[in-house]
Amino acid sequence: MILGYFIGYIACTTRSQILGFSIPLLLATPVSVGILAVQESCRFYLLLPGNEENCIVTHTDIKYLIFATLFFVLANVCTTWKFLFKDKFNIMLRENQLFWTPMYNSALLEHWMMLGRRNTLMQPHENAENSKLFICTTMYREDKNEMKQLLQSFKSVNDKVLGARGLEVKFHIYFDDAIKEGQETKYVQQLFDALDEVFVTSRDTSMKTHYGMLTGAKENFRALKIHLKDNSKVKSKKRWSQVMYMKHILKETVQSHQNSYILTTDADVKFTPESVEALLDLMIRDEKVGAVCARTHPLGSGLLVWYQVFEYAIGHWLLKVSEHVLGTVLCAPGCFTVYRCSALNDVLNLYATDIEEAGEFLTKNMGEDRWLCTLLVQKGWRIEYCATAKDYTHCPESFDEYFKQRRRWIVSTMANQWLLIKEWSNGKTDKLHVPFLFMVYQIVLLFSTVIGPSSIILVLSGGLKYGKDWSSTVTIPIQIIACICYAIVCILFPQKIQLMVGRLLCCLYTIFMGIAIVGTVVGISTDINGVSGAEENFISENMKMSSTSVYLIGMAIIFFVTALLHLTEFWAIFYGIIYLLGLPTGYLILMIYSICNITDTSWGTREDSYGISFRECLRSAFNFICFKSAQAGNYAQTGNSTQTGISAQTGDSKQTGDSTETSDSAKTDSSIHSIDFPRTGDSIQSSSHLTQRFEFSQDRPNEAQKFKENGYEKTSFISGISKEDLGRIGINEEEFLENIEEEVDSPKKYEIPMIIPAFGPQWSSFDQKFYEFTEDL
Prior knowledge:
Layout: H1 2-13, H2 17-37, H3 39-46, H4 59-84, H5 95-98, H6 109-116, H7 125-128, E1 131-139, H8 144-162, E2 167-180, E3 183-184, H9 186-199, E4 207-208, E5 212-216, E6 224-230, H10 238-252, E7 260-266, E8 269-271, H11 273-285, E9 289-299, H12 303-326, E10 336-340, H13 341-351, H14 358-365, H15 368-378, E11 382-394, H16 399-425, H17 436-468, H18 472-492, H19 495-529, H20 547-564, H21 576-581, H22 583-596, H23 614-638, E12 674-676, E13 683-685, H24 688-694, H25 696-699, H26 701-709, H27 715-718, H28 723-728, H29 734-743
Parallel strand pairs: 1-2, 1-7, 2-6, 9-11
Antiparallel strand pairs: 2-3, 4-5, 5-6, 7-10, 8-11, 9-10, 12-13
Helix pairs in contact: 1-2, 2-4, 2-6, 8-9, 10-13, 13-15, 14-16, 15-16, 16-17, 16-22, 17-18, 17-19, 17-22, 18-22, 19-22
């Protein structure tokens, strides 16, 4: 077969396509059928000594063979062959210019070569002239190596575009949370250090904008623009960054939406110019295609990454391809997908809407990429998958980060599937690319997701029956009780406890799954060999195998055959054993965690940890017990000067110029007035009494983070907050609510300096104690 592929390639590159490529491929099937239909040639070519009866063909069989062959040849002529018959290519073209996917990688040689051959109707070069491509990246807190990886990809694309004609490429980076309190974060400097190493360039002049700051690079890479977002001025997170650059680009390309494209990437992705070209090829050949996504490969190390390597592989091999063939892809990952500007123009206004109902939280904020694709499909645009285009992105390597990421993905996938099914049944979805059979397929997928946990419980119980002879009447109730207990933990306890218990359950399930796999292998051999006692596990008298054996054998066959059809990625099949061991983790424990945390608004990945270590927890408890009375006395001394018992001024005791020292009553430790968050250096300015009582930075890190995320960063915001407002931002612990409700009313509405300037006769009769609020002044 390899020889046949190279003969076909030589025929095409020497412009002998008609006689050396098209006609031989068309005749390959009828000639093969003719050889098998004649007994002598069948026996000669099949080499089946002792099985001559397999080559006997009756007259009835010949009639069916003739009709089937004629229809097959006619189908080839009407679809691919009529294009292959036209030979308008130049001589001595490279392999990647002749075939969509260079090199043989399929089990059906002639069909793959006919479908993989580039033809005149698919040549994008003429249509690519005067096209514009905007490569837009959303960045947050990636490390320097990840930033360099992205910039090196930019450089490879930029270098190739300089030598090409007709395509204009611009690069944009939208940096979320890049400016805090008017100052650039350390990640911004990290980006420019990486930029200098890759492009040997310096930073261009910065310009203030309504969203923060616009800057870029001077020499060698002027096509790059870096947008530094100040989250106090514009909305944060990925979806709103996408809305920003989409609106900006749509406005810039208002006259050429159809020939303008946006390539969205993550900040840790790696790709090649060839992958970009492959995406554009599919986009340009069909004006009804609104987006094209690529084959994503995870990067990282460790068992969890190996699990994801296999998970990504079967997800693209099976799910993406099935959606592409049956209807349309429903999720184009934002890490590496190209969109048509005219398609985005149809849905952007809806994509930029705020959350108005509870269900919209799952579709809009938990999985923005999938929701954008849902909107495109509803408007009649088709989304395709391009296996030739490849990108590499970093995946979670820790258990906690993986669970938090998939928590968002699972609920958003189910919510968008249900939304698409509901809108389709109501006639609100364009049915051109969403036919009835495709919706049946989606319903089956949604149903299989819902019953996934119960399927895992049954499979594991069957394996343990084989491995340890444990009765299913015992193992199934135990698993159900364990799942219910974990659900209760996820509902009642904080994230840290949930993930800790989840890790413990996953370790136990992995051990039991290993026992189940070994036991199932033994059980399969028992079923096949018909050993006495195996019949009690048979599905029926006609189906002499257990349900567990059928499930695992069927799944293994599907995976193996699929890997054979993707020879360049066949190595991913070896991670299948890790995937099998992790099945309960991904389809049982993770599902419970996701559903129970369905209202969690945090992103989950690349967020700083606000918890404290076990050692710090012991130290805080020791300090609280041993030094509580001493601290209380110190607070009482610093608070004697005011009627509320708290100090009113924070700052240094001296002022510059003609200054005077403040009174002792105006002095206090600045740490009393702020809530310090480890690693970020940010703080929530809170009232001294409120912070002194609860010590958010140590005892209440979760509550402090919720205050910060919802904008309660100053004393004037926290003062007077109601119990309903606290519940609205996610603080629902009854004991904490009762205590804080008494405290939020006591701080003054505004903390103003109680300092009497030393100059000016008008201050001679000022009496400090009568002026505590701005209204009094």
